[in-house]
Amino acid sequence: MLDNMIFKQLMKHSFTIPVEVTYPNGKTEKYGNGAPQVKIKVNEKIPVKDLLRNASITLGEAYMDKKIEVSGSLQVLINSAYESANSFLNNNKFKRFLPKQSHSEESSKNDVQSHYDLGNDFYKLWLDKTMTYSCAYFEKPDDSLEEAQMNKVHHILKKLDPKPGSSLLDIGCGWGTLMLTAAREYNMNVVGITLSEEQYNAVKQRIKDEGLEDQAEVLLEDYRELDHLPFDYITSVGMFEHVGEENLGEYFNTISRYLKSNGVALIHGITRQQGGAYNGWINKYIFPGGYVPGLNENLTHIIESGMQVADIEMLRRHYQRTLEMWTDNFHKVLPEVRKMHDERFIRMWDLYLQACAASFESGNIDVIQYLISKGPSARTLPMTRGYMYKD
User: Fold this and answer.
1) Looking at the predicted structure, is the pLDDT value of residue 107 above 70?
2) Measured distance CA(193)–CA(214) in Å, rounded
3) Which residues are bridge partners to 31 per DSSP?
4) Percent share of the chain, pLDDT over 90
5) What gap in Å lies between CA 334 and CA 91, rounded to an integer?
6) C-alpha–C-alpha distance, residues 66 and 42, integer Å
7) Is the distance from CB of 254 to CB of 277 less than 8 angstroms?
8) How confident is the model at residue 40, as a pLDDT?
9) What span, in angstroms and rounded, lies between the C-alpha atoms of 12 and 94?
10) What pLDDT is stored for residue 101 in this prediction?
């Protein structure tokens, strides 16, 4: 009985939109004024002790297992919960229901379910042709996803103000789109580094196919073990969210060590303006060991590593749109996804994409580009931002 009362209180205070909730006993409650925008059906009781242990895992798994079903947009529902001042996400009265982090959780990482070995065929279904799995950059409202991803590549490279013949290191090079664009269109000498054997083989083949052997090289090794000479420029996209809170300082120290004096780096990654955070469900099912650092945290590490900030740009709305387009693409190819994965996986992935879109929409997380230099800020860069937007 107590579990039901507490869960009903959580539902009652958690949304800014009108919501209809049907409980396991069949009773339906409406919260908010007007016609419900989203309907929630709770098929099984959610124990309070599980919410206390880790609310994100408990609710996420309940959705995956159809203990909770949602009619309407998951993104709208979750964004509403973030925006509600009285939600248990925000109100001190309900803060005890938030996931608690501890060293015991950290020590049990090996027992937590690892990220699925999804394979390239899965990503090809709903990513664009560049196979870019990070925030796009929408210069125009009608940019396609592929156009926006290439916009992002050029936006990053233009910020560096690179000189022909200069050297670039791309830490976490993915499928090589950024580094090979730098070689082909900016006449740079590039090195990409990855821990993925599939990515390594694909980039190596692309280098050969495009005749860039004299300008481009890809390495299969840990970014901290590189023994190449220092570089004029460094890029790293979507990397620091995965190194772990305890390794952030080493990450930025490594970038500083690899940069030449007055060298410039563009670091692009998910950041919380409110401070660093973990998410139990994301860590268990999507990105094991993931940690989203706070803005102040990253700035402190940048400064302590002997570098200075030249420019910061927030791209929160760009990632929201990217995720919304990924969600649309994912829904369109569900018949193909069902040939690869079961319904539990599909509900997990759908929740992941829409929950992240809601988190960006609400400002719970951001994605930020840090333009940094080794030495006095922007010593080698133009005086104004105008150069970043020239063709």
Assistant:
1) no
2) 17
3) 19
4) 70
5) 37
6) 9
7) no
8) 94
9) 12
10) 38
Q: Considering only CA atoms, which of 64, 66, 132, 40 is closest in space to residue 329? A: 132
By annotation, the residues acting in catalysis are 356
Q: Which two structure tokens, joined as six digits, stand for 34?
A: 């007007």
Q: Across-strand partners of 69?
A: 41
Question: What is the rounded CA–CA span in Å between residue 176 and residue 249?
Answer: 26
At residue 376, the pLDDT reads 94
Span 255-270, average pLDDT = 97
Structure tokens at 307: 């570098």
| 15 in Cβ contact with 84 (< 8 Å) | yes
Between residues 291 and 107, which one has the greater pLDDT?
Answer: 291
pLDDT digit string (tens) for 295-317? 999 999 999 999 999 999 999 99
Residue 322: closest CA among 370, 279, 270:
270
Nearest residue to 84 via CA among 11, 192, 2: 11
Q: Tell me the pLDDT band of 8, cut-offs 50, 70 and 90.
A: confident
Query: Which residue's structure tokens are 């970014």?
Result: 223
Average pLDDT over residues 34-54: 88
Per residue in 309-356, pLDDT (tens digit) is: 999 999 999 999 999 999 999 999 999 999 999 999 999 999 999 999
The per-residue pLDDT for range 57-84, each reduced to its tens digit, is 999 999 999 999 999 999 999 999 888 7
> Which residues, 6 or more positions from 262, have their beta carbon under 8 angstroms from its beta carbon?
373, 374, 375, 376, 379, 380
